[in-house]
Amino acid sequence: MGAGVCCFSCLHHIFSLGLVMALEKDEKSVTIFEENLSTESESEPAPSDLDGAAIFLDAHKDVDISHIDIVKLRHKIDRCLVPLMCLCFIMQFLDKAIYNYTALMGLPKDLHFKHGDFSNVASGYAFAHLAMQLPNTYLLQRLPASKWLCSCMIGWGLVTLCTASVQNFAGIFVARIFLAITEATIGPSLMLITAQWYRKSEQAPRFAIWHSAPGVGQILGGLMSYAFQVPQQGKLAGWRLMFIALGIITLFVAGLCFYYLPDTPMNSRWLSTEEKVAILKHVSVNMTGISNHKPRPGELLEAAKDVQIYGLALPAVLAAMTSGLTGTYSTTLIKNLGFTSRQSALLNMPSGIVNILSNMIVGFGIRRTSYRWAWGVGCTIPGITGAAMLSFLPQPNAAGSLVGIYLVGAITSISTIMQQWAMANVSGHTKRALTAGVMSACYGIGGILGPQTFQDKYAPRYLPATLTVMATQASCAVVFVCLFQYYLWENRRRDRVQSNHGIVEDVGEVDMSNQDAWAGATDRENPQFSFVPVLPAV
């Protein structure tokens, strides 16, 4: 718990310091902003800086799209794209979360685990996941996100298959390290893919749908664990058979996605040329681009100095610190309430239902009302309530403790909000790839710190873990409000500068003959870019 508090304090001071520095540099920022305004009409982006979408649109500028119904087109994209992203996330969750269920299925005993070995394997996964984010960020800048994701998916499917053969702690530890390396791209890749196809106002429900996939995985994982705990007559233990089954399914899904998941809207096999042009013009209002594989090192420095990156990262770390309660140790907590291993696997399934419902409510709620910060604050309330029930209810109270565990599961929807907010408010191809990596790295940091609050000496209630959940969620609520205020301040500053220059423009309407929409400028470089504190539903 001390490590968690220390981490929160450090990150809180970083965010606070960054916010103060940003406010103090108001005059300097205005000067730079004014320079961008004055040179905006005088310079054209170099061809090498243009987004692939601009090149495609220029080559098809005479295509008639007046007959295209954008609503029907969006539904077509939903049918073709969203199920594939969900399948990717379901398999990633199952291949990772299977370790949670093996605690019920005899893996620690079969591999002769000693004191702390189970937690060490979980922490090893988190460390490897964190370490992979920097190379993953570079590769996402250089390669199509969908192809890199599918290649990694083949890798983690093979690792899952091989895990069935491990014989000791060293074997499972190494296998989980390689699993983390191959799975590290799932979050950043899906974030970037979603942002390619939808307007900012349309992204939240799609983020919510594929973010609900782990809830589906949690339900399927409970059923599979229950089924594979049936006494086996053969030589293979149930947990080994489960690794084999999931590995085979993962490889099949990877092949499916490799064939059907397009790199960009421009090379989609299931869209006509007219539909490609229509969707590119539709999403151009984002001013965040589609595809540009030319790295811009200057964007890395800009991201390091951007206070919003720290504000987005802090809730991600705090939310991920609950991973021990919602993931690795959830079945152990349920079993400690007096249930059998098979009963615990089934009783963990409602957490998946909570995950699905909370993500759907938040995603579609943001689409209708757009108050991301308010939905974020609301998401912390069930988590705080559930953790309080686990901490303070008189024991034994199996029913109350189960409700507490299920309520904590609603915290997962915070990830939906933070990832979509980051993709909506960060522009520039290199900076966006880095931001996606930072968000994923934050979950790695939380994944390292969270399980450390689950020490054997605190069993069976694990009070430090439940108190940590209460503290981190309350802190999340505060950061959401601060981030909202920062975005309001920044937008008002930009409006004031543009007003001083006599510029009045509706950012929602972009002239597609103007290549500024595809110039690859960052959110700081583009004077027309507007941050999303709240967003009109369009």
Automatic annotation (TrEMBL):
Coiled coil spans: none
Designated name of the protein: MFS general substrate transporter
Transmembrane segments: 80-102, 122-141, 148-166, 172-195, 207-228, 240-261, 309-329, 349-366, 373-393, 399-421, 433-450, 462-489
Topology of this chain in the membrane: Multi-pass membrane protein
Signal sequence segment: 1-22
Localization (cell): Membrane
Major facilitator superfamily (MFS) profile domain residues: 81-492
MF (Gene Ontology): transmembrane transporter activity
Record bears the keyword Transmembrane helix: yes
GO CC terms, sorted: membrane
PROSITE patterns, A to Z: MFS
Lineage, broadest ranks: Eukaryota, Fungi, Dikarya, Ascomycota, Pezizomycotina
Domain of life (superkingdom): Eukaryota
Annotated Pfam families: MFS_1
Keywords: Membrane, Signal, Transmembrane, Transmembrane helix, Transport
Family to which the UniProt record says this protein belongs: Belongs to the major facilitator superfamily. Allantoate permease family.
